[in-house]
Amino acid sequence: MNAFTHASPYPVASADPEAPDAPGAARPSRPAPRRRWSRWATGVALAAPLVLAGCNAYPSYGAHSGATSQGQDTFKLYSGMMTTGVIIGGLVALLILWTLLRYRRRSEEMPRQFHENIPIEIAYTLVPIVIVAFLFIFTVLTENNVDAVVPVNATVTATGNPVVHVTVTAFQWGWRFNYPDLNVGIAGETTNGPDNHGPQMVVPVGETVQIRLVSNDVIHGFYVPAFNFQRQALPGVTNFFDLDVLHAGTYDGQCTEICGLYHTEMLFSVRAVSPSAFAAWAGSEVQAGHTLQLGGVPASNVPPLETHLTPSIPSPPLSTTKGSS
């Protein structure tokens, strides 16, 4: 027995060219691609934006639509980003589902192997870049609109819209709203004021309100959820921003920076009224003595520093001791 007569443990290619394993033999034909899955996934991906647009031009996804023009710009950006994410995420999920169904295991045959696909690699590199660039451009445009302010001390905007100036001073633990052009000063601490929600800033609807935000002590945060807006009050720094309130109503605000013991009770509210009602309110505040002191120092109705602050204290727990019968 020799190497030529010893049986080889490895399979030997058949000499029959028609045999399935013979070199050059035709492989069994694979099932034709199920194009209906491809068409179905493409149709859903194209229809998703139309369905979302039909429900609402800007789906809220649980966010405020914005009670100011600046807040609405922010809301539109948020809604657009969320919608983009939903469409992309849905498309990816459909592609994964289509791949699982289209290329699921059907036999023991080894699938055709390949190591590169230049068009697909270029596509999945360029598409994310285009999406990010698209979102970046709209983010910059929105930030520019939100941060745009009229010139300091301007009385009217470029379109002739009146400008109301309010100096907002944050301090531990309250807010002060001064109207230098109207000689009105409003201040309060913790949960006093209307509805026990701190002091109230009154503004006219349809007019530009320019806020000058400062802090007397530590870092505070001026935040009104319905405005989709937050800005920090920093010691030694003056921040300016404009608000154009679109609808009458009362909007609650709060401090968003941990500023000390009574931070959670550093509340305030913004009440938007018609311009005529705003003028009447300013006149009544002056008559009530809520005016600025000489030299532009804080409002005269600011509580003295030695005023004791009493935070909200929860009711004591009920006694568990049983009385004797």
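[next item in queue]
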Amino acid sequence: MFQKVLIANRGEIALRIHRACKEMGISTVAIHSEADADAMHVRLADESVCVGPAPSAKSYLNIPAIITAADITGAEAIHPGYGFLSENAKFADIVQAHNITFIGPTADHIRMMGDKIAAKEAVKEAGIPVVPGSDGGVGSVKEALKVAKEIGYPVLVKAAAGGGGRGMKVAKTEADLENAFKTARTEAKSAFGDDAVYLEKYLGKPRHIEVQVIADSHGNVVHLGERDCSLQRRHQKVFEEAPSPAINASTRASIGKTVCTAIKKLGYLGVGTIEFLYEDGEFYFIEMNTRLQVEHPVTEMITRIDLVREQIRIAAGCKLPFTQKDVKFTGHAIECRINAENPETFVPCPGTITDFHAPGGLGVRLDSAVYSGYRVPPHYDSLIGKLIVLGQTRNEALMRLRRALGEMVVSGVETTLPLHLRLVDNPDVQNGDYDIHWLESYLAGSRKE
């Protein structure tokens, strides 16, 4: 097992990784920008290294500085968390070239799944169902029109190197397609440096269902059930739960078996998430995330399996300590992403947190690195915490979530807590009757009132 791990991230996920390491007897090295010198993960880590000024490009994305930090501290492994360099194949290659273990999948798998076209082709060959669409990239409007006519409108134009909703445009009719195609290519080029796009059938009312898998270097692959992440705004997840209210045990076992078989064929290593659109009883592959997910705590809550711990153990060459038969799903978990944003306009709201109180009690977990007096910097993602609850039933989880949201205090900056309080009282949310378009329709209706 590793003696020392460098955490190449910040905020709540850096603190989450630190906690797992400490429970395993592993020393931690925190990297930080000048803006994060007083961050909680920096305060708690055994060692810390400043890797640059506030902008991400000069600090958390500064590969030479991060590698130097690992070298000078003697870190044997680097955990990238999520975001930043977590799905950067070049970074994984460089880490390995310096005889440091990258806590994650191989660079080849990161590279494969980072290219949405290559990923779709790979999983299709491995037996995972995909959304009807183009065979590879589409290079012209003329070609796009031909593909769209074959699969039927509406269609979705998507960046091959995309993520987070960028480079993604809907064309409802032939008249819409030329503008959608050109806009998606422009956004893709700007965001990812690659203007390659492809087309997929746009599904009307799908849910976003993702399956968590974990694979070791000894040929063992296990799925840990699904998460329902359908409540989204601009393709960004807001509210996640496990298990999905739309999936029964037999469907879970079936899609889980399909995913595990495919992951084994691909020779994948570590944790990963296969994301699907689910409509009318059918699953359609969207993408694979080759990293820890923001919403991983809901899976941990219903399985009692520490995903970060297992990531570290797998990277160290250990076997999974459980089989598929050992995995039990108990209760219902829900996660709310708490952002420092205006709850109506979603404009980021950096500033100093003047008062902070974390909710508590049975079945309540808060993954956050903020504290009273902490300054939320304007340079990074606005996520300041994740409130997760576990109940014996979904209704109990919703009741517990309402109570916990009411207890939580964050003063000095605006947050999305009021939005979550509204959501938990909405009949559609209470009934689990929503799809990936529901939240945006709800928000648009609220603004008109």
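[queue empty]
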